[in-house]
Each structure stands twice: as C-alpha cells, then as structure tokens.
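Components:
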Amino acid sequence: MKSSSLRTLALLTALLVGAGFALVFFYAPNDADQGFIQKIFYLHVPLAIVALAGFVVGGIHAIRHLRSGDPVHDARSYVSIHASVIFGVAVLVTGAIWAKASWGKWWVWDEPTLVSFLIVFLLYCTYYPLRYAIEDRERQARYASVFAITAGAFVPLNFMAVRAAQSLVHPRTFGTVDGGLPGDMWLTFLVCFAGITLLWVTLVSFELTAKRTRGQLSRLRRALDDDDRLPDTGVAGRIAPSGVSGR
Amino acid sequence: MTRPSPSTAAVARAILAKDLRVELRTLQSVPAMLLFATTVFVIFRFGLDRTRLDGGLAAGVLLVTILFAALLAINRIFVAEREQGGFEAIRLAPADATALFFAKAAALLVYLAVLELFALPVFWLFFLDSGAGLAPLVPVLLLLDIALAVTGALISPMATNSRARDLIGPLILLPLLIPAMIAAAGAGQHLLAAGGVSYEQFGTWLAVLGLYDLVFLLIGWAAFDFLIED
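Structure:
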C-alpha cells in the first residue's frame, strides 16, 4: 500500500475510534444493572470479534498460500494472526477487568466465551515458536500455513466443546446480551466495532508495508554488496546495476 | 518396465507394518509409555493425597496420564523417518505421501490401545472401588485415541523437522487437544461417578469427540502433503 493511502487509513481509524469513544462516554446510557463498568463492553466485545475474525482471515490466506505457493499470502496470514494475537491480549485484559468489576473476581471459569477465547489464544501463541523453529523459509511458510488452517478449524470446535461443558452446570444467562440492546447502545457498539475493525486493518497494512519495504531494502543492499565485490573494469560491473533496477 | 503405482491404502499398510515390526523388535515406545503412565499414577496418588478416586477426579487423572503418555509416542513417531531418510523415500516413491499420515496415525492408535489395555487395569487396581464404569469408558477412550493419533500424526512431522523438536509438539498439541479432553472428561466423570455409572450427556460427548476426530482427520488428509513436499 502507498504511504498516502496508509496515512488516510490511519486518519480514518483515529477518527472512528475517537468518535466511538466519544459516543461511549457522552452518548450511550449507563447500564441499568452494571452501571458505568458495562461501558467496557464497547471495547471488549469488538476486540474479541475482530481478533477471532482475524484468525479466520489468517486461515483463509493460509489456504491461498498452500494453493498458489505465493509467499505474499503467507505474509498476509502471518500478519493477520500476529495482529489478532495482540488484540487477544487486550481481550483477555479487558475481560478480566470486566469480570473483576461485575463478579468480583479477575477470572471466572463459568463464562464459556471467555474460557474458549483463552484456549484459542493459547493455541495461536504457539504459532510463533513453531514458525521461528524452522529455518528454511519456504518450509517455514508451508508449516505455518498448515498450522493456521488447523487452528482455524479448531476455533469453532473449541467454542462448541466449552459451551457443552458449561451447560451441564450453568444455564446460559448472558446469551441475550446483544439481542437485548436498546438502540443508542447498538449505535455506539456499531461505531466502536467499525473503529476496532479499521484499527486491525490499519495495523495489518502497516506491518505488511513494513515487511515489504524491509525485503526491498535487504535485496538492494545485497545487490549493492555484490556490486562492490565485482571488478570495476569488467563488463559485469556495468551490467550489474541495470540488473538490479530491473528487479 | 512400468508398474502401476500402489494404492494409498497399500502404501499405508506397508508403512504401518514396518513401524509395528520396528516397535516389536526395539520396544522403544510402548513399554516407556506404560512405565510412564504407572509412575504418573503414583505421582497423582501423592500429589492429590488420595488413595481412592471417583467422578471428575478419576476421569481427570486417567485422561491426563493418557494424554502425557501419548505425547511421548507422538514425539518419537517421526524421528526414525528423519534420521533414516523416510521423508525423502516417500517423496521419491511413486506413492501418495498422505499414506504416511494414515500409517503413522494408525501406529499411534495401536500404541495407545496397547497402553490402555495395561494402564486401565492398573488404574482400576490403584484407585477404583468398582470397575463398572470401565466398560462404557472404552468407546470414549477409543474416540480420544483417534483424536490423539490424528492430531499427533499431523503436528509431529512439523515438530520433528524443526529446530526445537521435542518442544514444539507438546506445545501445539496441548491446547489443540483441549476440546477432545473436555469431551472425554465430560463423559468420563459420570461413568466413574461414586454413586454408580451414569450416562448423563454420554451421547453428546461421544458426538463432540467424533466430530473432533472427523475434522482433524480431514485436515490431516488435505494438508499432510504440504508437510512432506520439499
């Protein structure tokens, strides 16, 4: 992506996230049950949805990578998962704060969505040690893609198993959180959701651009080093630079 | 002279037969798993300070022990292929590389079945008052074994071909196997309950385990090729 469009994207993200927070604090009413602390919902839930969707996007890029063998898709898969893992940390922290405020404990095991998210997060954390334990670039990309696909299929299975384990003991009491939202809360939620989604897209675009630029830089540097080592008088010395610019 | 390339099933059978013959002659994996499982039972006896177990605790001790014993075998299952050129051989052979996946999963399944054949009576002897829950536990364990074998055969080649060999396998497999463990423990805690065998949610848990097995079997089938090609 060009730097001008990156800048536009970043500005738009800042605008939407800012607007979202303004709505959260000045427009959305306090929740009747939970009061002010319920407002963390506008940050926590969009972060969680975007992180999970990001894992799925990473899996889709991984399928594309295995089908085409194009390393660009592997980079996209990696960056998607990377951004989602960072969002995942924020989800767990905001979830813990919310749990402390409304249930008095930093962690509760009877909220299946939170527990499922933790398990998914733990699995995706192992993506990094796997990737960096493989030296061969091409093999690293292939293995990482197989992992991303496996983990992508794991996400719905895991949510199902954790929910089935809970329903034995606890009736689902939070199932209607979204369905029962009044209009002004819905609006605030949607703006926040759009803002967080754009934030994810911006972070992914920045990292992809940075990766590509770094790749170009090291290619140029290598070409320059090769150039230095060539004898100055020969034909090769004159041919090499044009070969570099052709890449 | 051209010969038709052998079917995937024939190749898988040949590799499985090779693996089982090697295991019978060297006794590298299964006796170690059995010794490990027995020792872990003893550690749980003191770790929990309980001489009799029932319900969720009994199921937990049994399943966690099987899980860790399985990790021992999973870590080793592809080592011979790396050291003796099995990965190259399957690439060179006019055969589907997926046969290697099915053969290794089947070998793991056999190892785990043999392990449980010995470990279950030991568990009964050590911790249980009644063995009534063990018979209905067999299908649960069988489905769990398939889960362990399939995910193990999929993740193990990645770990074996990486720099941090013995670390990567368990690191990925433990979170990956949590849904299967949840389902097996969910069924097991009622089968081993103190008040007698109860089949509460038994069908649901078997269905979850079956779905888990099916999903990862399909992923392994589809993706294993990419772990072998170089």
